[in-house]
Design goal:
Elements (H helix, E strand, L loop, with lengths): L9 E11 L4 E6 L13 E5 L2 E5 L1 E7 L2 E6 L5 H5 L5 E5 L13 H4 L3 E4 L4 E10 L4 E6 L3 E5 L5 E5 L4 E4 L6
Parallel strand pairs: 8-13
Antiparallel strand pairs: 1-2, 1-7, 2-6, 3-4, 3-7, 5-6, 8-9, 9-10, 10-11, 12-13
């Protein structure tokens, strides 16, 4: 996901991965959880040939391990094939506000990570979902993987752009 503090305010939400049928439906790889909720957000911004294009979701549903979607104005397989590989984003403002003390991954990407001793560990590059807990991937010349748990993450200050963690700089 993109950082919503970016000037464009977009959140990377998925990618168009393939074709489904002959009537313009596409297969979508979704970053939403649960994955099929990606169809609840419309319009999408779809990045084709370097430009973002607003597209309305007409229909969509879970299909096997993925999601299939019918976008307005995409009515046949040829039109749909031009979208394969395109990134899907939404505006951060389309997301419901998180509960107190909760954050979207997109809000954390790009934040500085500082330990309790005041040492800068780098910036959050991305997050991983591991099953047991999410993991912050922090980069500053080297890569660190920090568990996104309450005993490690002590404070998230979105205004200052800092996450304070209980983590030794030597790890």
């Amino acid at each position: 996901m993109a950082n919503p503090s970016r000037p464009d305010g977009l959140v990377h939400f998925g990618r168009i991965a393939g074709l489904f049928g002959v009537e313009g439906w596409v297969k979508v790889f979704s970053h939403a959880r649960p994955r099929e909720t990606i169809v609840d957000y419309s319009p999408w911004l779809v990045k084709t040939t370097g430009d973002w294009r607003e597209m309305v979701v007409e229909e969509g549903r879970a299909q096997g391990k993925g999601v299939v979607v019918k976008l307005a104005g995409v009515d046949n397989r040829d039109q749909a094939s031009r979208l394969i590989g395109a990134d899907i984003a939404i505006r951060f403002s389309q997301l419901p506000p998180p509960s107190k003390g909760e954050y979207y991954w997109a809000q954390l990407v790009g934040l500085e990570v500082v330990n309790l001793a005041g040492q800068n560990l780098g910036k959050v590059d991305h997050l991983l979902e591991t099953g047991a807990n999410d993991v912050l991937v922090v980069r500053n010349g080297k890569e660190r993987c920090l568990p996104a748990t309450a005993n490690v993450i002590r404070e998230v200050d979105l205004e200052a752009g800092v996450i304070r963690v209980d983590w030794d700089a030597d790890f």
